[in-house]
C-alpha cells in the first residue's frame, strides 16, 4: 500500500496547534466524510481507502497515511494537498 509521511515544524503552543488540527479535521469530515478520533495528541482518521494519523508535538506536526491500491494513483495529489494545508496553517 502506498504511504505518506510528512513532518512540518511549528511554533504554536501545543493546545493551539491541536486546535488547528481539530479545525482541519472538521473540514476533512465535511469535504471527504473522513472520521477522526483523538488519542492523546494524535488524531487518527479513516475512511474507505485511507487510514492515518496526525501527531501534534510541541514543535512538530507529523501526518502519516496509508492509501489503498485504488487510491494509489492519487498519492501525489494527496501529498501536495497535505503539504499545502500544513504550509497554510503552520508556516
Order of helices and strands: EHEEEEH
Distance between the termini: 30 Å
Overall geometry? globular
- Report the count of strand segments: 5
Beta content: 35-45%
Low-confidence stretches: none
Order of strands across the main sheet: 1-5-4-3-2
Largest sheet: 5 strands, antiparallel
Q: What structural class do helix, strand and pairing data support?
A: alpha+beta
With helices defined by DSSP (H or I, 4 residues minimum), what is the helix count?
A: 2
Overall residue-averaged pLDDT value:
92
State the helicity in percent bands: 25-40%
What value does the Rg take, in angstroms?
A: 12 Å
Protein described:
The protein has helices spanning 14-32, 75-90; strands spanning 3-9, 35-39, 42-47, 50-56, 60-67. The protein has 91 residues and is an alpha+beta fold. Helices cover 38% and strands 36% of the residues. It contains 2 helices and 5 strands; from the N terminus they run E-H-E-E-E-E-H.
Which terms would index this structure?
91 residues; alpha+beta; five-stranded antiparallel β-sheet; 2 helices; 5 strands
